[in-house]
Amino acid sequence: MAVRDDSVRYIYPCESGRLEAEIKLGRDTGKIAALVMGARDLPLADPVREAADAVMQLHAAWDPALFARTFSEKFGAEDIRRFLLDLRAKYGDCRLAEPDLVSVRGALIAVQCERGPRLMKLELRQQDDRIRSLWIRNPRPR
Prior knowledge:
The protein contains 3 helices and 8 strands, in the order E-E-E-E-H-H-H-E-E-E-E. It is of the alpha+beta class.
């Protein structure tokens, strides 16, 4: 167990890896505000790996057809193109590193960039494996 200001993280050993559960409490309410859960020390599911690879390919060179195949319709192509251009401008070339937490439909994945590490959160839709949620931010504390 690891305790920080507003959260507690439990890591449970399992037969083929570790399960992590992090609970964040609301500052004003003291109630659970967020729950992050996933497996450690396991490879990414194939659809998640393919989506993460596609994001990195789009980061390297924009491809409208790849964007359309990879992202759900809730994302605007120009918004994602600008987001990835901003990432490149601030952090340089980036590549996928090791998964942090994984699930069948998503992952937190370390991203190594020329000007500092980042963390990608990716979630896929069940019906077609297209991206339904994506962010790239500072790595989370260990």
